[in-house]
Backbone:
């Protein structure tokens, strides 16, 4: 099937704006990734089921828990739907969206550029209370990254106290429990191994991963 013209224009805008700063297209999709080893920024030019055009979604996806899919863990929808009406106007809009995505991706790099900055950013921007199992896990693991082992263990204990007992939640609790049994240095090694496993599950390329101070 031939690629629709509006998708070609989106891909062209993304190549011109995102590729030069290091983002890589995910296969032949409308998703671009800024891969930073244990986390990545995901840029999605999301289509609509009803109209030709695009939304823009930008967010961080953590790679420290082994699962097969990417998720928008911080951030998501950045604009209302841009409908394709004519090529010139739509390309102008696609370039503007790509520029917006670039700014967000570069800002994420800065916010995550050191363990302490990453901890501050994640604790400030992660939505959810003690009953949000993903929020507790992500806060705990970023504290571990920053060598704040005391708070890391508090957040991991909060994971165990979440009421959710669905199968996937039980798996997350088992993961947290396994970390709580380890001394700090071994916790860091365990997360490093989990990141490598997570990357393989998501079919991301091999790369050197640095986690922790």
Residues:
């Amino acid at each position: 099937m031939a690629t629709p013209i509006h998708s070609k224009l989106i891909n062209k805008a993304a190549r011109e704006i995102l590729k030069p700063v290091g983002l890589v297209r995910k296969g032949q999709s409308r998703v671009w990734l800024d891969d930073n080893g244990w986390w990545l920024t995901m840029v999605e030019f999301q289509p609509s089921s009803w109209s030709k055009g695009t939304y823009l979604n930008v967010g961080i996806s953590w790679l420290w828990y082994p699962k097969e899919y990417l998720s928008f863990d911080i951030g998501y929808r950045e604009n209302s739907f841009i409908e394709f009406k004519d090529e010139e106007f739509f390309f102008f809009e696609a370039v503007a969206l790509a520029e917006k995505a670039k700014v967000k991706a570069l800002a994420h790099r800065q916010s995550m550029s050191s363990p302490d900055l990453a901890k501050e950013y994640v604790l400030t921007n992660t939505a959810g209370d003690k009953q949000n199992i993903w929020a507790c896990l992500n806060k705990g693991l970023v504290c571990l990254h920053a060598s704040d082992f005391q708070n890391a263990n508090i957040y991991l204990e909060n994971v165990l106290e979440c009421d959710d007992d669905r199968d996937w939640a039980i798996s997350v609790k088992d993961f947290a429990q396994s970390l709580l049994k380890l001394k700090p240095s071994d916790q860091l090694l365990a997360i490093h191994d989990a990141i490598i496993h997570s990357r393989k599950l998501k079919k991301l390329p091999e790369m050197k991963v640095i986690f922790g101070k």
Notes: The mean pLDDT is 96. The chain is about 50% helix and 15% strand. Residues 87-111 form the longest helix (25 residues). The longest strand covers residues 53-62.
